[in-house]
Specification:
- By secondary structure, the chain is an alpha+beta fold.
- Helices cover 30% and strands 42% of the residues.
- Helix 3 packs antiparallel against helix 4.
- The longest helix has 14 residues.
Length: 168
């Protein structure tokens, strides 16, 4: 029996109105749960690249790829699950109601995680993170353990195949 795990797909699609809705509609119609979906134009403005993460078993994942390949607007489907990648996820984290000592601690955390403090108030700060999903999860867990009031906004991951081997 095949296990459920996160699987990654890159789609090259026509950059047209409604394509995102059609792709996401395929996932919802089949009750596939999207973990992450990020879309942006490529070097060719008529083509967009979608980076999609879905949690599924092997059989379902093969069905997803076949269904995506059958869509007219889809130019190419690439299974990134076992491919060496460079992958990052953008995340913003606001930390509220902190005193001067906590602010100093937050700046230390930002330095250790190599994230930017992009906005600051008298009792709050905003972090901008471009880390892997795992590192973002670690940062969120640490912020939750240290501070009472935080707000997190995450974007989906973007990924590109490596040029050299051994990276992810």
């Amino acid at each position: 029996m095949s296990t459920m795990k996160n699987r990654w797909i890159a789609l090259y699609v026509e950059n047209q109105v409604g394509v995102l809705a059609k792709v996401s509609g395929l996932f919802s119609a089949k009750s596939y749960n999207l973990q992450s979906l990020t879309v942006g134009t490529t070097e060719d403005e008529t083509i967009s690249r979608m980076t999609i993460c879905v949690t599924s078993d092997d059989i379902t994942f093969e069905q997803i790829k076949k269904q995506l390949n059958s869509m007219v607007e889809v130019i190419k489907v690439i299974d990134l699950t076992a491919v060496p990648l460079h992958m990052k996820e953008i995340l913003f984290a606001k930390v509220f109601d902190i005193n001067a000592q906590q602010m100093a601690e937050l700046f230390q955390i930002a330095q250790v995680f190599q994230v930017d403090v992009v906005d600051i108030g008298a009792d709050s700060a905003l972090l901008e993170c471009k880390l892997t999903e795992r590192r973002n999860n670690e940062l969120i867990a640490l912020l939750k353990s240290k501070f009472k009031k935080i707000s997190v906004v995450r974007g989906g991951a973007v990924a590109i195949e490596t040029i050299s081997t051994g990276c992810r």
